[in-house]
C-alpha cells in the first residue's frame, strides 16, 4: 500500500527509454480495450445499444495496439518489456469500476471520456520523448486519434443510441435505482421511524428514566434493522422481479430501519427526561416529513397525501406508545 501511495519502486516517466515508452503504450491500449469490453459486457443486458458503442471503441483500441506493436517490432524486435501504468510514477490509473454491477450508464460514459483525455495527454508527452521520426509520427497520430475519440464516441452513440433509446436507457437506470435502493430504503425508514415509536415512548413514559428508554430504543432499532435486512434478503433474490442484488437491498433496508429508530432513541442520552422527550418528538417530526419527501420525489406520491398518511400513521403509533406508557 505504501509503495503505491509514495511511489516506492516505481519509475518516473522521464527515466523511461523509447523502448519502454512504446511498451507502456502497448500495455495501456491493451488494458483500455479490455476495459471497454468489460463495460460492454456490464451494459449488454440492460443497455444493449450502449454496449455496442463500447465494443466499437474496444476495436479501435485494438487497432492502436496493433500499430504500436508493429513499429516496436521494426525498431526493437519481438521482446516487449513488461511495463504497465502502475509501474510508473504519476501515470494515470484506472479505477476498477467495470467490476461493479450494475453499471451506471452515465458514469461509464463520463469515465470513457476521462480515459480518452488521459490517453491523449500521454501520447503528447511520449511523442516529445522520441527521436525516431516514424515513432514520433505514430505517437502524434495516436494523440490526435484519442483527442478525436470524444467526437467519434458521440458519433457512435448517435448511431447505436439515438435519442429515444437514450431516454429509455436513462429511464431504465432510474427505475433500477428505485427498485434496488429507494424502495427498500423507504420501507426501512418508515418501519424504523414509525414502528419503534410505540416501544420507545411507552418505555419513556412508563419509567421516566432516560437511560432505560435509550436501551429500549437501541434494542428496538437494531433488532428491527437486523430483522428487516434478513427478511428483505430472504424474500426475493431479484432475478424474476428485477429488483437487483438482495444483499444491496438487505443492507439498505437494514441500515435505514436502524437509523429511523435511532433518530428518536438517541435524544435520550440527554439526562433530563422532558428535554430528551421534546427533542425526540422534534426528530420524529422531521423523520416523518423526510419520508413524505422521498415518497413524493421518487414514488410520485402527491406530497400532501404522503404527508397526511405518514403523519397520521406516526401520530397514531406515538399516541399508542404514550397511552400504554401511562397505563
Report the β-strand fraction as a percent range. Answer: under 5%
Largest sheet: none
CATH architecture of the largest domain: Up-down Bundle
Number of DSSP strand runs:
0
Number of domains: 2
Radius of gyration: 29 Å
Structural class: mainly alpha
SSE topology string: HHHHHHHHHHH
How much helical structure, as a percent, in the residues?
over 70%
| Low-pLDDT segments | 1-7
Q: What is the end-to-end distance?
A: 60 Å
Quickly list its features.
mainly alpha; 11 helices; 327 residues; elongated; disordered N terminus; Ferritin; 2 domains
Write a concise synopsis of the structure shown.
The chain has 2 domains: 2-160, Ferritin, core subunit, four-helix bundle (Ferritin); 168-325, no CATH class.
What does this structure look like?
The protein is mainly α. The protein folds into 2 domains: 2-160, Ferritin, core subunit, four-helix bundle (Ferritin, Up-down Bundle), CATH 1.20.1260; 168-325, no CATH class. The termini are far apart. The protein has 11 helices and no strands. Helix content is 77%, strand content 0%. Helix 2 packs antiparallel against helix 4 (105-128) and helix 6 packs antiparallel against helix 8. It has helices at 2-6, 18-44, 48-76, 105-128, 133-160, 163-195, 197-207, 210-235, 246-265, 273-298, 303-325. The radius of gyration is 29 Å and the shape is elongated.
Amino acid at each position: 500500500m505504501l509503495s503505491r501511495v509514495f511511489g516506492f519502486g516505481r519509475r518516473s516517466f522521464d527515466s523511461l527509454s523509447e523502448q519502454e515508452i512504446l511498451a507502456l503504450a502497448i500495455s495501456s491500449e491493451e488494458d483500455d480495450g479490455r476495459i471497454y469490453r468489460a463495460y460492454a459486457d456490464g451494459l449488454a443486458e440492460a443497455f444493449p445499444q450502449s454496449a455496442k458503442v463500447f465494443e466499437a471503441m474496444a476495436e479501435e483500441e485494438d487497432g492502436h495496439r496493433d500499430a504500436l506493436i508493429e513499429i516496436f517490432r521494426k525498431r526493437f524486435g519481438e521482446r516487449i518489456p513488461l511495463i504497465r501504468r502502475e509501474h510508473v510514477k504519476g501515470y494515470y490509473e484506472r479505477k476498477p469500476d467495470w467490476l461493479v454491477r450494475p453499471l451506471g450508464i452515465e458514469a461509464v460514459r463520463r469515465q470513457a471520456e476521462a480515459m480518452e483525455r488521459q490517453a491523449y495527454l500521454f501520447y503528447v508527452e511520449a511523442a516529445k520523448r522520441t527521436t525516431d521520426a516514424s515513432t514520433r509520427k505514430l505517437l502524434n497520430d495516436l494523440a490526435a486519434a484519442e483527442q478525436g475519440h470524444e467526437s467519434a464516441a458521440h458519433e457512435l452513440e448517435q448511431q447505436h443510441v439515438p435519442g429515444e433509446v437514450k431516454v429509455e436507457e436513462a429511464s431504465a437506470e432510474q427505475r433500477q435505482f428505485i427498485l434496488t435502493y429507494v424502495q427498500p430504503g423507504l420501507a426501512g425508514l418508515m418501519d424504523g421511524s414509525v414502528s419503534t415509536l410505540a416501544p420507545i415512548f411507552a418505555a419513556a413514559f412508563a419509567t421516566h428514566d432516560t437511560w432505560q428508554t435509550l436501551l429500549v430504543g437501541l434494542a428496538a432499532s437494531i433488532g428491527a434493522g437486523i430483522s428487516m435486512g434478513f427478511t428483505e434478503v430472504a424474500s426475493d433474490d431479484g432475478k424474476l422481479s428485477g429488483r437487483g442484488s438482495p444483499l444491496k437491498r438487505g443492507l439498505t433496508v437494514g441500515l435505514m430501519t436502524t437509523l429511523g429508530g435511532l433518530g428518536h432513541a438517541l435524544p435520550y442520552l440527554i439526562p433530563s427526561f422532558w428535554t430528551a422527550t421534546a427533542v425526540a418528538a422534534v426528530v420524529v417530526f422531521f423523520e416523518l416529513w423526510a419520508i413524505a419527501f422521498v415518497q413524493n420525489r421518487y414514488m410520485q406520491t402527491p406530497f400532501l397525501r404522503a404527508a397526511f398518511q405518514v403523519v397520521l400513521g406516526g401520530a397514531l403509533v406515538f399516541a399508542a406508545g404514550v397511552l400504554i406508557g401511562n397505563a
